[in-house]
Amino acid sequence: MIQLIDIQKTYGSLRALDSVSLTVREGSIHALLGENGAGKSTLMKILSGFLPRTSGRILLSGRDEDLGSPEKALAAGIGMLYQEPMDFPQLTVLDNLMIGRSHGFFLQKKHILLDFLKISDELGFCLDPDLPLRRLTLGERQQLEIVRLMSLGVRVLILDEPTTGITDVQKSALFTCLSRLRELGKSVILVSHKLEDVASLCDDATVLRQGKVSGHFSAPFQSMDLLRCMFPESQSPVPSDHHEPGNPFFFLDDVMASDGRVSLKPLSLRICSGEVLGLAGLEGSGQELFLRVAAGLEPLRSGSITLDDFCLSGRPFREFSSRGVAFVPGSRMEDGLISGLTLAEHVALNRSGGSLFFNKKHALDRTRQAIRDFWIKAKPDSTVDSLSGGNQQRFLLSLLPDNPRLLLLENPTRGLDHDSTLAVWTILLDRCRTSGTALVFSSPELDEILQFADRILVFFQGELILDGLCRDLDRDAIGSAVAGMRKSF
Amino acid sequence: MTLSVSRVSRFLNSPGLSLCLVVFSVIAFVSAVLALSGVAPLETFRLLVQGSLGSSVYLGHVLKTFIPLTLCSMGLVYTFRIGLWNIGIEGQIIAGALGGFAFFRLFDTWIAFPLALAGSFVAGAFLALMSGLLKTRFGVHEIFAGLGLNFVAQGFTLWLIFGPWKRPGIASMSGTDPIADVFFLSEKGPFALSTFAIVLVVVVFFLSWVLIRQTLIGLKLHASGTNPTASRLLGLRPSLSLLFALTVCGGLAGLAGFFQVTGVYHRLIPSISSGYGYLAILVVLLSRYDIRFVPLISFFFSCLNVGSIQLPMILQIDSSLSGVIQGLVVLFFLLVKSMKDRSVQNQVSNREVSDE
Q1: Any chain A CB within 8 A of the CB of B136?
Q2: Which residue, B287, B74, B303, B302, is CA-closest to B201?
Q3: Which of A185, B100, B252, B326 suits a disulfide with B75, CB 3.0-4.6 Å?
Q4: How far is A317 from chain B (nearest CA, A)?
Q5: Is A370 in contact with A376 (CB distance < 8 Å)?
Q6: ipTM (interface predicted TM)
């Protein structure tokens, strides 16, 4: 039995986990749910020894455990199965099993092989030990990893989003395996987004929200209970007065694209000028890919993109940009700003075209103007690295062209505090109202979308499954769509 | 207490101390090795200085090395600024030499000279552009492309020297027939050096200084090299900047090759590039990619090269000592720099911890 008591994890002033306590019983499957950023991965990394906790206790069978490193956690019987199994594709199945085990100088191949066959049999798996690993599917690699962990004596198995990317057949094999493990007295912690899977399989569930425990459940429970706990009714946000949108000008027809992790199913959409669209959905459902496709940063597999009468499909990003499509990336320092350069240098480079010379004074003046207009706390010769997240975001916004037709923003208020968030939204909405710019933004916070957007688009596994006006939809309907439950509407 | 600590740490962080540390370490290390080999270290250093700066003849030799080395180094400042390792520069020198020499064989009149000059630039730039296109179109790393093309250029030169351009009757490693006397760069004045060559280097230096430090070009190169994704969003074209940097570098290397043909060897030889390309990489590393320090460091390296020529005759030690010293200078420089960076990191993280 594992008990986590008052686990805290702070990074400077940021509280990633705030007094999280939970108990996992022996011989049970315990689900850990929550949106991205809720703290699930942090908690599991602490449990599996990858991160040190700031404070709190972890007890295994009543004994306080240190779990200061992955080796110590493994020695205590805790093993983690990652979404992308960390294995060695060039080696065979059996070789993969042998790695990381301490044996003497000589390999004990036969012993390990017997062990492998015994455990595979117990769990209902069928794997060929001599196959090179790269010939296995993701589901099979997962199975191998479970066998490996079991052979190392793991008694607590943590699975991080195990059902992403495996076939239905493999999913049932996995679930059968997990039930078998439960019968054998092991503890299983399942980190997942898939509420229906959780409801059907798990004995207990804990929901995390913004680093705190939001609710505990014991079977039997319904997906809707979990949903309401993940997206609780907060104080109704004051909806800003939504203007009537103008004429449609941006059209996507049967657009398909893929970025290797998620594929967009054929999507058709029209955007009107002055409209504010919020994109909702669990992480990796396709919102970010959609934004990049609309910005011209990601190529289309099929379909077309039209702005006014002009066909933009297949054109380079420069052309999207020159026609008034502006994009603001979610990772400010990685994708949007250049480390080591000052604000003035960014301003000088911004849309400088082919020009050679730059008027230093002119650039400084423009930078000072931007600092004033966007309330940026910095000097023109400060490097962007030295700015806080909120200031970086406002600076990024200041670099946008004056009157874009379409503004695409990836999670614009990520990591910002309340005041910075309000400042950013004031700037953005002002743009919209005065110049008829259409705004499309993604956000993990339903509150933010309901407060600022006219229209909401919900994505699930690459498919646009809901497109409606915010004022016409209720929270439950939206929440269900986010979790991929189609039955509710 | 805190005041004196900060003063000490400021001194420790000054570039002056780093330089002293590097120089001291190199001298100490080399002296130790020489002493262990039974050679007087002081005498060796004296000969190095005297053999490079001791007379106008020696100084002329130093400048003959300085010119191609500085041209290459200035070119590399462009490519390093955008984050490229243009190992292919050695081949670009060779290409420039070939390009120039070809025109000297084709034409007898004065027109050959400007054509050869232009041809050298274009040939060097062309080879560099090949590396660039391999990178932008096919993602081939410039180190592999550069090395590969170096071999190509070298092989092509050998074929020309032993084949179509061979000396009538004797095909030999000593190279081709010389170019016509009229095309030799003049060796006038106390240093036996052509004013044309010196003027060329000075002009390129000032042009590059202005381009890199005063115009948007330098900034675009730096931005594209640091973060091509963000650069694209700002409206820049990192691929074009990359090709530009390589073209300029290749062109300047080509001019170095031109100088080797007209000013030094007066013909085409197999080792026409003399390793100046690789040496230029060391020069630019030491100058911390700042064009202002390039001529100084290039001069220092040239002195070492020339000064070590008489070492075998007088002290019976190999002239490759100059290469050893050059390599050590760079190694110790990098070592001292990384120690300094590490201590700065520690200071920053100590401050972070105390903030919490």
Answers
A1: no
A2: B74
A3: B252
A4: 8
A5: yes
A6: 0.81
Examine residue B353 and state whether it is found in any structural domain, yes or no.
no
The contact set of A with B (CB < 8 A) is 12, 317-318, 321, 327, 329, 334-341, 345-346, 348-353, 355-358, 399
DSSP A126-138: ---TTSBGGGS-H
Task: Judge whether B351 lies within some domain.
Answer: no
**Interaxial angle between packed helices B112-138 and B238-259, expressed in degrees from 0 to 180 and rounded to the nearest 10:** 150
Per-residue DSSP letter, A393:
H
Q: Is B219 within 8 Å of A358 when comparing Cβ atoms?
A: yes
Nearest to B219 among A321, A336, A349 (CB): A349
How sure is the predictor about B241, in pLDDT bands with cuts at 50, 70 and 90? Answer: very high
CATH number at B115 reads 1.10.3470
Residue from the list A334, A346, A356 with its beta carbon closest to the beta carbon of B215: A356
- When CB atoms are compared, the residue of B230, B235, B355 closest to A321 is B235
What gap in Å lies between CA A460 and CA A280, rounded to an integer? Answer: 9
Calpha distance B282→B80 (Å, rounded)? 12
For A414, counting Cβ atoms within 10 Å of its Cβ (0-12 exposed, 13-18 middle, 19+ buried), the class is: middle
Give the separation between CA A330 and CA A336, rounded to whole angstroms: 8
Residues of chain B positioned with their CB less than 8 A from the CB of A399: 234
Domains in chain A, CATH or no CATH each: 2-230 (3.40.50.300), 248-324+401-482 (3.40.50.300)
At A321, list the tokens: 């940009």
Q: Are A67 and A76 in contact (CB under 8 A)?
A: yes
**Phi, psi at A92, each rounded to 5°:** -80, 170
CA pair distance B183, B258, nearest whole angstrom: 11
Residue pLDDT, tens place only, A28-73: 999 998 876 678 888 988 998 888 888 899 998 888 888 888 888 9
Task: Identify the CA nearest to B245 among candidates B268, B211, B272.
Answer: B211
Decide if B344 is inside a domain. Answer: no
Total length of chain B: 356
Tokens 């939206």 sit on residue: A478
Q: Over the stretch A128-155, which tens digit does the pLDDT of each residue have?
A: 888 888 888 878 888 888 988 888 889 9
The number of domains in chain B is 1
B96-107: average pLDDT:
93
How does pLDDT run across B153-206, given as a tens digit for each residue? 999 999 999 988 888 887 778 888 888 777 787 776 666 678 889 999 999 999
Instruction: Work out the pLDDT band at B356, boundaries 50, 70, 90.
Output: very low
Would residue B277 count as lying in a domain?
yes
Closest Cα of chain A to B333: distance in Å? 23
CB contact under 8 A, A348 and B219: yes
pLDDT above 60 (res A489): no
Domain that holds residue B305: 15-339
For every residue of B92-142, DSSP letters joined together read HHHHHHHHHHHHHHH--STTHHHHHHHHHHHHHHHHHHHHHHHHHHH---H
Instruction: State the alpha helices, DSSP H only, in A189-331.
Output: 195-201, 223-230, 287-295, 317-322
CB–CB of B67/B198 below 8 Å?
A: yes
Give dist(CA A334, CA A45) in Å, integer: 24
> How far apart are the CA of A360 and the nearest CA of chain B, in angstroms?
9
